[in-house]
């Protein structure tokens, strides 16, 4: 298993080196900063952010039924913050 993880790590490093300047090129073409190829960089749906990092899947699913207005407000806030990051000022 350790060998497989090491091999995966090497491939991840190779991918990062190959994609390197593509982020700068994308920015020059007008793509927003969250349009990266990694989910960790914010390029995911607001609900995914809530369920993955804030409430967990079970909590998020329960919120859909118990507190849908709060869940929608949280998703809207996340989306608004991302939009402001793309279009400052």
Describe this structure in words.
With 89 residues, the protein is mainly alpha-helical. The protein has helices at 2-19, 22-28, 46-54, 56-66, 68-86. It is flat and about 45 Å long. The termini are far apart. Mean pLDDT is 81; it is low at 35-42.
Q: How much helix is in the residues? A: over 70%
Order of helices and strands: HHHHH
Strand content: under 5%
Instruction: Extract low-pLDDT stretches.
Output: 35-42
**What integer is the average pLDDT?**
81
> Based on CA inertia axes, which overall geometry fits?
flat
Distance between the termini: 49 Å
How many helical stretches?
5
Helix vs. strand class:
mainly alpha
Give the beta-strand count: 0
Largest sheet: none
Our Rg estimate from Cα atoms comes to 17 Å
Features:
single chain, 89 residues, mainly alpha, 72% helix, flat
Spell out the blueprint of helices and strands.
Elements: H1 2-19, H2 22-28, H3 46-54, H4 56-66, H5 68-86
Give a nutshell description of this structure.
This protein is an all-alpha fold and 89 residues long. Helices cover 72% and strands 0% of the residues. Helix 3 (46-54) packs across helix 4 (56-66) and helix 3 (46-54) packs across helix 5 (68-86).
């Amino acid at each position: 298993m350790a060998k497989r993880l090491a091999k995966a790590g090497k491939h991840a490093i190779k991918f990062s080196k190959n994609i390197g300047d593509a982020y700068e090129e994308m920015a020059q073409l007008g793509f927003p900063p969250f349009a990266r190829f990694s989910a960790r960089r914010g390029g995911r749906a607001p609900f995914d952010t809530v369920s993955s990092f804030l409430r967990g899947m079970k909590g998020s699913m329960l919120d859909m039924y118990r507190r849908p207005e709060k869940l929608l407000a949280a998703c809207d806030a996340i989306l608004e913050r991302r939009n402001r990051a793309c279009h400052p000022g």
